[in-house]
Amino acid sequence: MCGIVGYLGFSQAAPVLLSSLRCLEYRGYDSAGVAVIENGQLAVLKATGKLSNLEVLLAEQKPQSTIGIGHTRWATHGVPNNNNAHPHLDCTGTLAIVHNGIIENYQTLRSELTGRGHLFKSDTDTEVVAHLIEDQLKQTGDMLTSIRHAVSRLEGAYALGVVSQRFPETIYAVNHRYSLTVGLGDNESYLASDSVAVRQYTNRILRLEQSEIAEIGQGVVKLYSFDGIAVDRQPVVVDTSTGAFVIDKAGYKHFLLKEMHEQPTVMRQTLGKYLKHPNAPVDFSVGNASSIGSESCAVNLTAEDLSGVHRILVVACGTAYHAGLVGKYIIESLCGIPTEVEVASEMRGRDLLVNQHTLTIAVSQSGETADTLSAITEAASKGSLTLGITNRPDSHLCHITSNLIVTECGIEVSVAATKTFTAQCACFYLLALYIAERIGSVSPERLSQLKGELLAIPILQEQVLSRENEIKQKSLRHAGARDVVFVGRGVNYPIALEGALKLKELSYIHASGYAAGELKHGPIAVLDRDVPVISILVPGALYEKTLSNAQEARARNAQMIAVAVDGDDNAQKTFDTVLSIPPVDEFFSPLLTVIPLQLLSYFIADHLGRDVDQPRNLAKSVTVE
Ligand code: F6R
């Protein structure tokens, strides 16, 4: 939610800020703005809507400056308009603030500051920070002291960037339970909420830890705790050589389409990193091969640790939650350990029933989702073992989990998660095999067979993707649907949920996912000619029952669509449209069945003229609770 950037050096600031903001636009695209110091005066340029609007403004105004901060917004407090766009100013108009996060006590502070004569121009929580600093600056004349005083008044989680024309050679940054990275070049410094934006310029980076203030000069940075004590931490040199930061559509119409097509490669990379061949053990003790992070990832759960685990709890949001539901099925089948999956935001405000016999797994593509981070932090505080599954080895999640599995997806630009979903599912298969191997819940022969089948999945995914044109043509028959119901059973129930989420967020057509057996318990009432049912129908233990549920829907005149395997005559007879996939074992089928549903959502959304890479109202990294 919201992205902060900064630049200080000898080049023109505006193009650097713009390029950095481009890397962060996934965090919000309600408005964007910059504040630069031009001829000793603070100048602010803001535009509602996408970054391209700010780009036009900057091209017209051409601000001349070598220092500035910038922001891309996902609105929380106040509608998306120019007034509420960041940066926000103090009353003197000489100090500008950009902010990510929420100041929970802003209303109290705003009343207090208004009472002291401060004038507010926006509806945001952010603006109080500018006025708090202004007050202190008047008294002390010292920026660091003023910022320290301001943060001592703030409640909530936040990251800030601050510039003032009184201090034209310094950018100040604050991190409190968020992420901020400073990049250091030769006489140049960069600031960003996501290190990806910094790494396009330099490989020397310094992450702000929790409750730290940075005083950033040209190519130098000093760190302080909120108590004003200097912190001695040196920048680390990271690998920027492999081009993982290249944000390029590679000829595809959208990032989303490209990322769906990357799934077999990503699957090979993620599986190949931890499992070399069917007779090898799953090994999570390998360093991080990805260039997007510096930390190594490892799972160090011994047979003894695992035999003490009585329950597994998965916490996650959105698509990552659906991957967790697939994980539950896999872990319970292979390891026999009861596994629950909770929407992370529902873990707040209640007593978590976890202890040292629980393994809590947090799944988060970004590793920055506030709800997920809070849930795993609370579980850890109750003595639970912790494990993170993320695509970002440089994220906050990695710092707060004792065990870590990194999906090898590269950057996912499109706001809707696709390749990271299948990679998260792959990690659950690997983790279940790893646990089963250690606790002996599956015979060695069966383990080798399962590993062999898992390693063959990328080829099958390629076969599904090669049917893209056929899937497009069949999907567009249903682009006029008013509402869509997705159903699946067992391991494909989460895929029904994920299919419905993808369709909703990309096309804005309402959709719901249900366990197929639930259809008759209520949802069947919504079915008619304009409400198609999409069933996921894979041969296996649940096939007959899923087919019967489909018949119930057919009897209500609904248009019937199936994701079914090649050669399934029942599917051809029962359904109006069949999106076919190659034959696959039910156990591994989610890694394939989700792909036609991703493609269907994409093609319908594109056909309806939706902004598929940046759907309305969404942001990729949801850093507020
Ligand atoms: C949907 C989507 C979201 C995220 C959710 C969690 O396409 O992307 O539902 O899955 O916001 O995000 P992460 O995985 O970053 O914690």
Strand order of the largest sheet: 3-2-4-1-10-9-11-15
CATH architecture label name of the largest domain: 3-Layer(aba) Sandwich
CATH superfamily of the largest domain: Glucose-6-phosphate isomerase like protein, domain 1
Main beta sheet: strand number and arrangement? Answer: 8 strands, antiparallel
What is the beta-strand fraction?
15-25%
Helices, by number, come to: 20
CATH class call of the largest domain: Alpha Beta
Helix content: 25-40%
How large, in whole angstroms, is the Cα Rg?
25 Å
Instruction: Kindly name the structural category.
Output: alpha/beta
Terminus-to-terminus distance = 10 Å
Residue stretches low in confidence (pLDDT < 50, at least 5 long) are 288-296
- Taken from the alpha-carbon principal axes, the silhouette is globular
Q: Give the total of beta strands.
A: 25
Please state the average pLDDT score: 93
Named CATH topology of the largest domain: Rossmann fold
